[in-house]
Every structure is written in C-alpha cells, then in structure tokens.
Amino acid sequence: MSLMKCCFDTPEVSDIFESMVQKCTDPGCCCGCCSALRPRYKRFVDNIFPINPQDGLVKLNMEKLTFYSLSSPEKLDRIGEYLFQKAARDIYRRRYGFVIIAMEAMDQLLVACHAQTLNLFVESFLKMVQKLLESTEPQLQILATQSFVRFANIEEDTPSYHRRYDFFVSKFSAMCHSNEYGEARDKIRLAGIRGLQAVVRKTVSDDLVENIWEPVHMDKIVPSLLYNMQDSAFYLKESYNTDIAPEDQIDSPLLAETCMRELVGRASFGHIRAVLKPVLRHFDLHKLWVPNQFAIHIFRVIMLSIQAQYSYTVVETLMAHLDENSKSSPTIRTSIADVLSKIIAIAAGESVGPSVLEIINSLLSHLRDSVRHGINQKDEKQYQEALINALGEFANHLPDYQKIEIMMFIMSKIPFPLVDNNTPADNLLQSILLKSLLKVGTKYQTIHLNSTFPVSFLEPLLRMSLAPDPDMRLLVQKILHTLIDRHSNLEQLIKPTVNSAALALTLETSSRPDLIFINKHGAMIYDALYTSLQMNTNTIENIEAIYTTLALLCVELASAETIIDLLQLVLGIQNLALTSADLPTPQKFNLHAIVASLFVLISTIANITPLSEYASKIVKARKKEAPHLLPDLLSIYPPKAELANKLPHLVIDQMAVCEYLKSSGFDSTRLMQTSPYGAGRLGVTSGTHRHSWVETGARGSIIEIPATQEVDSASSSPGVQKKLPEEELTFESMKRVLTEPPEIRKEAEAEKREQLSHIFHTATFEELKCRTQPKHDLLQNKLNEIFKSLSTSEVHQSPLQLDKKHSVPVYEQNFPELFLY
Amino acid sequence: MEDFKFLFKVVLVGNAGVGKTCLVRRFTQGLFPPGQGATIGVDFMIKTVEVDNEKVKLQIWDTAGQERFRSITQSYYRSAHALILVYDISCQPTFDCLPDWLREIEEYASSKVLRILVGNKIDREDREIPTFVGEDFAARHNMYFLETSAKEAENVEKLFMKIAEDLMQQARNKDLSRYECSTTNITARTSSVNDSSCCSKLT
C-alpha cells in the first residue's frame, strides 16, 4: 500500500483514479484499493479515526491533518465537507463515538486555521453543528452547542452575507425549554442558553449578518432566558455576586441572567423595545406580576445593564404597559407600579429634560384614572399608594431644582377650585395629589426658602391650606413642615409644649435671602395659617400641625422683624380664641394652648429675658388655675373648664408684651399698631372673618395682583355690563349662588364671556382704549366698594362661603391680557 | 451527504392535551408515549421522507398548548411552511377554541402558510365532535382536514406525507426549490465530492 501511495501521490494522478472510480458503478468492485486511490485529503481525514471509537481521536494523524490543511488551505473546504458527510452517515447509523471524533477534529481545524481561509470551511462546520442539533441524542446536542460556542468566539474577517442563524436561534430556544427527563434536561437547557449567548455574541457585533434584534428572534430568545430564570429561587437571594461562580459550575438561571445582561447591555435605543416587549408579554402570560419579586429582579437586571442613556425607555415602556393593563385587576397594576417604583430610581439619575416631566405626567394621569374608576376599593388604594411611592422614588433621585419643578407641576395638576360641592372623586384626587406632593416634598432638601417657595408654588399651596376638607388641610401643613424644616427640628416641634427650653432645637441665624423672603411673603403665609385656624372643622391634628408650621417658621426665621410679626399673629390667634363666635369651646382651648406654646417658644428663641419671664409667669399661672389652656390639646375638656375670657389675668396682654419688647430694645410700634388679625380691635367681631386675600393685598404684598384679578377683572373689562348680579358680594347674593342651580350661572357666565370676546374681537384699539381709560379710577372705587361690602356682609359668612367666593370668578382668568392696561 | 432536496418547517398548534406531541412522536419515532407530560415551550423533531423519489426533510416544531407559553410558541409560527391545528374529537372545548387559534395564526403566521385541521384521538369511544363538523369547519376556513389517532397510528403517516407532497408541489410551482436550506447551499464543487463517495460507505 505504501508503494501505491508513493506512486500516486500527486493530486493529478489521484484525480484520474477518482474519475475511474466514478465510472465504477458496483460499490464492491474496488473496495480493496480505494483507500489508496482516494484523494490525499480524504486519506488524511480517514486516518484520524481509530478502529475503535472508544480510543478517541488519533492525535498524531490529527496533527498531520492540521498541518496539511495549514499548508494547503484551498483543501480546507473539501476536508470540512468530507468530515461532515462522514459524521452524517455515522449519525444515521448511530455510531456516535465517531461523530464525536469528527466534531472534535472540526473544532481543532477551526481553531488552528487562519481566519481568511475559514469561510467555506465554516459552512460545513455549521452544517455539522446543525446535524448534531437535529439528532435526538442529548449528548450530541450538547456537543454541538459547545462547538458552536467555540465557533462564536472566533473572529471572522470575511463577512458572510448568506449565513443564517434562525435555525440555531429556534433550536437553542427549544433546548432552553427541554422536555427531557432527569439530569439531561438541565444539561440541555444549559446548553441552550450557552447557544443563545453564542448566537447573540456572534451576531450582535456584526451588522452584516442577521439582525438578531428582529422580533422573530427576540421573541424566542428573551422568553427562553426568562423561563430559565424564573424557576429557581435564586433571584430571591439578595446578593449579586455573579462573577464568583466559575464557568463550568454555573447553573442555568445564573447563566441566563448573565446572558440577559449581555443582551440588554448591547441593545441600542432602537432595539430596547424589541427586548422589553417579550419580557412584558412573558410576565403577563406566566402571571409573574403577582407576586412580583421576579419582575422586580428582572427589571433591576435590565436597568442595571442597560446603557444608561436609554434607561428611561424602560420606565416609559413599563408605564405604557400599565396603560395596557388598565382593565386588569388592581393587584396586577399595583404590582407593576411597585416594580416601577423599585426601578424608577435607577432611571432618575439619567433622565433629563422633558422625559422627567413626561414620566411624572404619566404617573399622575395613572393616578387620576385610578381615582376616576375605583374610589372605595382597597386594592385600588394600594395601587394609588404604589404609584405615589414610585413618584416619590423618582423625585428622590432628581436634582433639587427639578424637584421644585415637579412640585409645581403636581400643584398645577390639582383640580381647583376647592369648593365643598366637589365630587368625591375630585376630593380624593386632590388629596392624592397632595400626598404625592408631600412625598416629593419629603425628598427635597430646602436650602433657601425663596427658591423652595416660588410665588407660583406658594400661592396655590396656601390656597389649598384653606380647603374645606380637614384632612387636606392637614396634608398641606405637612407639606409646609417638610419644606420649611431645614434643621430637623420637626420631631421636637410636632406637639405643642410650653417647655421649649428643654427641646434640643437646632438653630442658625437666618440668612438674608430668607429674611427677604419672609418679609415679602410672610404676611401671606401668616394670614393663611390664621384663616385656617378659624375653620371650625379643624381637628386637634390640624391645630397641632398649624402650630408646628408656625414653630418651624419661628425657628428657621428668627429675627427681630419676624419675631414681631409672629407675636402679632400669636396675639391675633389669642384674640380669635377669645372672641370668635362660631368656634367650639374645646377648639378655643386648643388655640390658647398653642398660643401659650408659641409665646414661650418665641421668647426663648428670641432670647428676650423679660418676655421669657412673662411667658413662664403666665404658664405657671395657667398651670395652677386653668390647665386646659395649656397643651396637650384635647378634644373634650372637663366641664368645669372656664373660658379664658373670664380669666383675663391668664391671657397674654398685648400692652405687657409691648413693654417688655421695648425694654429689650425692640421696636414694638408695629405691634402696637392695628394688627391685621384684629388684635388691636379687641372685641370687634368683624376682625375675625376677613377675606384673607383682600387683606394681604391691602397690605401691599405681592399677591395684590391676583387678588384684584379675581375680584375685579370683569368690572375692569370695558364695554360690558359691568357686573352680573352674582358678583355683588352681599350675603344675599352669596346665598343665591349657593342655592341657584349651577346651569343658570353657567349660562350667564358663558353669555358674558361671549360678549367680552366679541367686543375684543370687533372693537378697534382706540375704542378699547377709551373704554378702559376711565376704569382705572373705577377700579379703585370698585375695590373700596367691595371692601366695604365685605366688612358688612362677611360677619355672617362661614369660611366655606369664602371659598365659594373664590370659585365664582375663576372664568375671568380666561382673559389675562385684559390686565395689560 | 446533504441528502435532501427540500426542507419544510411544520408547526403543530392546538390546545393543551390534544395530542400534538404524540402525533409527532408517532410520526418521527413510531411510538406512542403513554404518559406523555405537557410540553414545555417548544420541542423539535426532524424526519426525512421521500416524495416522488425526492428526499424531503421535515423540521417539526411541536409547541406547548398551555397558554403561558404562548409568547414563545407564537414566535415559531412565522417561519412555518405548514401549520397543523390539532383538536381532540372527544373534547368539545378544544374544538371551540379553534377560532381563537385561527386568529392567532392570522396574526403571527405568514399568509401563505399551509393550514391543516386535525381531529385527533379517533380511537376514543366518547366522540363529541362528529367528523362532518370538523370537515365543515375546515372547509369554511380553507384548510385541509384529517382525523387521526396517534395511538393507533391511523392517518398519522398520511398527514405528514400529504403535507410534504403539498409543500413540494407549492415549492416546485413557485420555483422556490431548496428555499431556506437554513444554513448552507451546496456548491457545485462539493457536489462533485458527493458523487465520488460511492465507496466510502465501506469505511
């Protein structure tokens, strides 16, 4: 045989023989001599197979084959084809030992040969892999996967446009769901994941081959990975030490997770959705939202591995999914919202610009929908909680300036006006939005009060603090607490106490901007607080909350000027407690109690010794004679508790306060002057019910403009019948407003609006100017008129009606341009 | 030895427990697995048959009927050449679901896909859906119809052969021969190797 070999060694000769063999139709005729007559590469290939498959690859001959294929790379494709055919035949005959050897040989050739010559060989290699994958033998499938992984790690420099991987994706995905029994199943599933990982690695970096991001593939890959992760309890473990396990001991959930991370990490913006859609679908179908640990885990994985700039897409997609699920049970929605709240923080760091408000807006609209649809269900409540949490989480991770923006944004979403004939849904929505506001507020760290409270935020907030619903007022106070408190004094000041020296308060001299702020807006704030103390629906909690707000203001903004203002307010409150006609007695006691507490607190903080002494004297006296005028606040007082009016010596005396202040070098003239709270007009009942906005307006604060707007915009509009009957702010008219069916009012309003716009559409500018000119004087007159009518009529008005009054002229704001004049 | 001329992908769908896996097993392995559990996700089998002296390779994707796997199973519809929609003749609900399945097929499969309606388990005594009802339904929706028994091996071979023939006919007509021979094409050069291998069987 060796003789034959050397004789016919040249390829040309062997080709001749080959053609001879072709003509030979009887397979048996030339069997003896074939091995000598075949082409050389075939002989090399044949020689690597041992007689007995258990012996494994013949190493020496394999080296020869490798050397041969390196030296004549043009033969490589034929070698591959030949090996494949041999293996295919062996599979058919179930001689798996030889198949394994063939595969091993191919692996070695693949690794050994240079990239540029591989292209054609790879075709047979992949055919071989496919062939093995098609067999039902688990062992071969696993072997094939290993080879495929090896192949995927090779860098090919020639692109192959026609190569397709859809079979591999399909098959590997099927393997991930292996239906085998016993140990083989886990192995096959693991192999399936490895295979998918390899496909992804191979294709993701190469634009020229198949687009792995097509939904066809992603719909297979993603559920397969998830399916392998969801079965194990491993995701319940807290630790994320993925890099510890060595490659070969890795279990399928872990590997699937690694693969998932890789996939998500490589996804570009356009592809994220292709990954997320099957994820959401999978959760829906496998009912994995409730309980949601797995969902949280997966979404965390996604958020942590996604390229940061795309992370908000995940939030958006999840939000959209919430939309799609608007019909499903509240528990599912709660779970989704919960997942959202868990991952939203990760997104917050990266989202900028409009996407932030978009997310907030979407959350709010979900809240609104939820409020609209289910008012009293417990599940629905939980859902709302979850949404608010998500909101809070999100806000928590935004920079501070954006938090203010968000608070203002939420504020703008709160339905106005706050009248008491609102639908329950409206009320609920208001309180829910306030809750979200509070949530955001608690995450916010105030530095300068004037940046925390822009007028456009402060004003509606204060207006909200006069809402008819006590719970809502409480919420507003809480928002104020969290925003005002900068030195964590909230804890100490939550309950009124007369022992303020014992409180470990953190004090700091207030900065100039803060003082400017309080000078500018203090009046408005005090006034709102004062007015809200007049509400007879106040609970103890409300009153305490207002105390806390005042105390915090006092602590944060202690200065000579604010002290006077605060004292003025305190005296005003005392006055209210003494004179008010419609506050129930326990509330009056409560007011006295907080007056005492505040008085002590103020004198302590301002460090005015005579005042402190005076305060402690009063406290001592009250302790002895009238403990009901001191904290703690109670809702029911012992029947023998006497009204403070009858105990004048226990009441803080304005004159005395002035004296002490003067003696300490404070300018107490302001305190002496007529107080806006009626302190100077002791016993004048009209002082207790004032229209706060008009009042503050008169005091020249910044909100003068909105105040006039509301009261007078229609009357300053030219050429219209100056006022409708509804606008006469008398008691009768107010009563009418309340009793009249709203339709009539609306009609009148609409008519008037039409008239107005008609005039402004048709009249010339000059005409308009003439018409408006004289109104400036009229405006003043009108204002005065209103003030007068207020002071006469409002005695009989409850605060609720006052709110009503606000509500009437809202439509007038449709024409803000009228105020350009 | 790339020994087939045509490659067709066949996907089986239908409610859980109608016998999809058993049909496939019967056809590919010639056995009836008695205690066959529910399929998870997708299972894959291959079988080469001969039609008109041509070898035809059938890639059979056997999908899970359970709803929770719907996302993964649907992704296999698209590349299918033929879809076998199976119901259980002794179980009315499996028949009632057929319109839903058709809707899914409309949505996810290609429009040219060959659709076959199969009523399985005709070996059972407690038939609930008479043959003509199934026939009717199939006719209305432009599908082939066949009743089979995986247990008794009745009509199973016929079912797949029919599919193979039909698809081959289709492929010939459209001249789509060997379309999507998934990974590779046989080049002219390698086919010469094919021819010379007559003796290699002995090695």
From TrEMBL, chain A:
Signal peptide: none annotated. Belongs to the EFR3 family. GO terms for biological process: protein localization to plasma membrane. One of its GO terms (cellular component) is plasma membrane. This is Protein EFR3 homolog cmp44E. Pfam families: EFR3_ARM. InterPro entries: ARM-like, ARM-type_fold, EFR3-like_ARM, EFR3_Homologs. It comes from the Eukaryota.
UniProtKB/TrEMBL annotation, chain B:
The small GTPases Rab are key regulators of intracellular membrane trafficking, from the formation of transport vesicles to their fusion with membranes. Rabs cycle between an inactive GDP-bound form and an active GTP-bound form that is able to recruit to membranes different sets of downstream effectors directly responsible for vesicle formation, movement, tethering and fusion. RAB30 is required for maintaining the structural integrity of the Golgi apparatus, possibly by mediating interactions with cytoplasmic scaffolding proteins. SMART domains: RAB, RAN, RAS, RHO. It is found in: Cytoplasmic vesicle, Autophagosome membrane; Golgi apparatus, cis-Golgi network; Golgi apparatus, trans-Golgi network membrane; Lysosome. Gene3D superfamilies: P-loop containing nucleotide triphosphate hydrolases. It catalyses: GTP + H2O = GDP + phosphate + H(+). One of its GO terms (molecular function) is G protein activity. It is a lipid-anchor. Pfam families: Ras. Its cofactor is Mg(2+). It comes from the Eukaryota. GO terms for cellular component: autophagosome membrane; cytoplasmic vesicle; Golgi apparatus; lysosome. Keywords: Cytoplasm, Cytoplasmic vesicle, Golgi apparatus, GTP-binding, Hydrolase, Lipoprotein, Lysosome, Magnesium, Membrane, Metal-binding, Methylation, Nucleotide-binding, Prenylation. The keyword Hydrolase applies. Belongs to the small GTPase superfamily. Rab family. Its EC number is 3.6.5.2. It comes from Photinus pyralis (Common eastern firefly). It is an enzyme of class 3 (hydrolase). This is Ras-related protein Rab-30.
